[in-house]
Write a structure and sequence with these properties.
Layout lengths: L4 H6 L1 E8 L5 H11 L8 E4 L2 E4 L6 H6 L6 E7 L2 E7 L7 H8 L4 E7 L6 H12 L4 E6 L8 H12 L2 E4 L1 E4 L7 E4 L4 E4 L17 E2 L11 H17 L5 H5 L3 E6 L8 H11 L6 E5 L2 E5 L7 E9 L8 E9 L1 E3 L3 E4 L5 E3 L4 E4 L2 E4 L2 E3 L3 E5 L9 E3 L4 E3 L2 E4 L3 E7 L5 H14 L3 E5 L5 E5 L2 H15 L3 E5 L4 E6 L2 H10 L4 E3 L5 E5 L2 H10 L4 E3 L1 E4 L1
Parallel strand pairs: 1-5, 1-6, 6-7, 7-13, 8-13
Antiparallel strand pairs: 2-3, 4-5, 9-10, 10-11, 11-12, 14-15, 14-26, 16-17, 16-25, 17-24, 18-23, 19-20, 19-25, 21-22, 27-36, 28-30, 28-31, 29-30, 29-33, 32-34, 32-35, 33-34
Helix pairs in contact: 2-9, 4-5
Amino acid sequence: MAHTPEIEAKRRRTFAIISHPDAGKTTLTEHLLLAGGSIRAAGQVRARGENRRTRSDWMKIERERGISVSSSVMTFEHADLMFNLLDTPGHEDFSEDTYRTLTAADAAVMVLDAAKGIEPQTLKLFEVCRLRDIPIITFINKMDREAEDPLALLDEVASKLQLDPSPLYWPAGSGNRFRGMVELKTGLFYPFTKRESGADYDQGHEDPVPLDQAVTAGLLDDAELAEVTETAELVAGGFQAFDVQSFLEGHMTPVIFGSALRHYGVNQLLAALGAYAPPPKHVKAEKAGVDTAIDPGDKEVTGFIFKVQANMDPNHRDRIAMLKLTSGKFQRGMKLKVQNTGKQLSVNAPIMFFASDRELAEEAFGGDVIGIPNHGVLRVGDSLSETGVIRFQGLPNFAPEILQRVRVKDPLKAKHLKKALESLAEEGVTQLFRPAIGSDFIVGAVGQLQFEVMADRLANEYGLECIFEPSPFSEARWLAGTPDKIEDFAGKYRSAMGTDLDEAPVFLGKSAWEINYVAERFPDVQFQRTKERG
């Protein structure tokens, strides 16, 4: 079969995994890689015949705390499809990173803890998906532990998310009584076998049997069979049958139950992603200033940078820009132009990701995510293409909720601090503001955990011991308006003015009240909570 951009794009499934912290997202990520054949055991990634041990949580602080604080990308091939899995941070302090990652996803898997249901952070992430019309598959995890009533969980999805849940499978019990699940469409019963989490999963769980044979096969007793049969019939009659079109439009979510840790339900989730998740879609763009839509099958190679990650490999001090390809057939060594700067890049060492492992990508197509090593040339929101005239919508920066001053303990390392802070700001880890008066940098973040991650990375990756102190400011707003109006305003409020990484003017307020007060006095200047990058 010819490797045309159109045919290859249809083979791509690019999806993100979203969840509340501790719902089991990282575990599910690793078991999807296991089911897809990319790793031999959870926690290991195989590349080029070597058994290189790595995890999708590759930062030191992630391993120490058991949380994801950075989006990671993993690519694997399964059942003649190419999957690009985007693992997002679950912690709300990193919602901006999650938002940007979702711009590169065509579908999402929402992981719910069976005992907790929909938690506040899940709601926030779901709203981001809704803003982008991303279809969602729901995976209800940890069924091998005591769980809420599955019907109550489905009602919660319907009421809190305004989404029609359509279970593809129905569980038999939970916790110590969890026996497996029945596929509603076929009546096949998939037995659950409790194994140690580190066991060899090559053989998987026992093969499915027709539900009416589950008792004779010793998988259920009579009471359990009666219970699961009755509730499965109730569910089949009470919920809408799965409709692919309704799912793709973002109105319906198929639901699968399982236990990621025990590698149960993971194969069914992967099959659903392959069967129902959409291939890459048209993407709105401007071509030489004219509105257009880029089709994945178009010949020209186009894409946008949704993330920059420094020091994935501390030995090489590398800086990787993650490019979501939107069209064309990319080949190693190609020249691509950056739309907003006009710079041309020769992409000689593009990377396909396997968590923190990587190998050279000889070719890639619309829907794929590749890494481009570079030193400060590419930034989040940049649009790349062969002609250099394609511009995709930029990615947003959100106004930070906490502002702190940062200084380095060793004054001789002040220059190194500036470079390190700029590098982390370009990644989108935090935002950096330079006050018009004074020499201290002000760092903005959504939550306190971002400062802890930043301090950890400054120490481990840059050798800088830093002190974070309260800032005299608590709010930041980008200024928009005609240059003369902004200049007039800046002259009157010089002590509260600053610039961001792009030298854009920023007003630093002591309180929300002050910002509202000042905004009323200067109606010709807009005080913006978001700013587009790229």
